[in-house]
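Reminder to self: tokens first, then the designed residues, so the page reads top to bottom the way the pipeline ran.
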């Protein structure tokens, strides 16, 4: 892989997370406005057409964010999520239930787009039924975000989830309060649903995604648990100041390998892992070349390495590849250099990688 490709994995990871959270926020605002628009509420300073137009534009923007979220998730390649997993629910090998709910939400939004484009042909009634069904995408998307997202246990994501629930609940209660002509039974059912559903979601969250060990219980493949990426690499060292590696060190590593056959006959090999000992940290090694028996004849490469407790990224390329021995030269943007020597043991059946890493500062 090229040098830029080595850094793209981290870029895709941040993009898919931010786009997913952005989509949830936009969808929440759209649903709240949609619920309120049914009451036909208006004032001198806020005409009804403003609410309707804002609701439509927020929905379109949310759909764009969902499309970007899906595209970057598939492009990241860190988890075994394919294009089919984004549209066919519950078939993925990665957190099948919670990722499947994301597919359900995206399918509902896709149905909304298609029926809106065909509204004149299918009729208003059919379009309206699908439109109301699309409102179900919000709670489904919320549970998907909390069940699958790597940020679910963080305080800021708790705030986003709580505010999303609160906004929709307030909109639902306001609609019930302003619908004086509705039957009493329907109003009571509306209030009950507006209160019971959020309580159920919060109870599930506190007993599931908010607890340690959720990644395994959610269905994360065992091979990924060994090299799981974290949202805040510096969290392990709290606020302790950590300097870049200045002395030679040796460490062990664990990780995963993923191979992809390209249409041009070349093979892409991506190895991601975590370093245990020495400066610690995470790495990603990308190789591209002609497939060989048990390996690859390299034509391009890329490497990224982030020492533990820092946000500094070393980037470089492979200088020597011989069997399971890989030597790479890397450097930071400020010019700090390392030579990394990997001794890799790869289990082709499970995709698990173990081995060693020797680092020599200033040797690149």
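Designed residues (364 positions):
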């Amino acid at each position: 892989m090229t040098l830029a490709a080595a850094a793209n994995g981290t870029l895709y990871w941040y993009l898919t997370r931010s786009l997913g959270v952005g989509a949830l926020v936009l969808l929440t605002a759209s649903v709240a406005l949609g619920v309120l628009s049914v009451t036909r509420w208006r004032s001198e300073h806020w005409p009804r057409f403003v609410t309707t137009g804002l609701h439509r534009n927020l929905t379109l923007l949310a759909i764009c964010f969902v499309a970007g979220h899906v595209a970057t998730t598939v492009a990241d390649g860190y988890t075994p999520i394919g294009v089919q997993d984004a549209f066919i629910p519950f078939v993925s090998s990665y957190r099948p239930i919670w990722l499947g709910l994301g597919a359900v939400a995206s399918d509902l939004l896709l149905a909304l787009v298609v029926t809106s484009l065909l509204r004149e042909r299918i009729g208003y009634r059919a379009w309206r039924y699908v439109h109301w069904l699309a409102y179900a995408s919000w709670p489904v998307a919320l549970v998907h975000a909390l069940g699958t997202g790597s940020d679910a246990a963080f305080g800021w994501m708790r705030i986003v989830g709580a505010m999303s629930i609160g906004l929709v609940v307030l909109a639902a209660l306001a609609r019930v309060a302003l619908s004086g002509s509705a039957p009493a039974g329907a109003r009571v059912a509306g209030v009950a649903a507006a209160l019971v559903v959020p309580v159920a979601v919060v109870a599930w969250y506190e007993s599931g995604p908010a607890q340690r060990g959720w990644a395994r219980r959610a269905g994360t493949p065992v091979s990924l648990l060994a090299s799981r990426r974290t949202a805040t690499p510096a969290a392990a060292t709290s606020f302790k100041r950590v300097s870049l590696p200045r002395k030679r060190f040796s460490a062990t590593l664990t990780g995963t390998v993923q191979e992809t056959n390209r249409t041009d006959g070349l093979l892409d090999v991506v190895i991601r892992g975590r370093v245990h000992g020495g400066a610690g940290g995470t790495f990603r090694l990308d190789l591209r070349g002609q497939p060989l028996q048990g390996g690859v004849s390299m034509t391009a490469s890329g490497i990224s390495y982030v020492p533990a407790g820092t946000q500094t990224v070393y980037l470089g390329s492979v200088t020597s590849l011989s069997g399971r021995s890989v030597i790479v030269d890397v450097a930071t943007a400020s010019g700090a250099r390392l030579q990394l020597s990997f001794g890799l043991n790869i289990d082709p059946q499970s995709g698990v990688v173990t081995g060693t890493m020797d680092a020599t500062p200033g040797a690149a």
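The longest helix spans residues 3-37.
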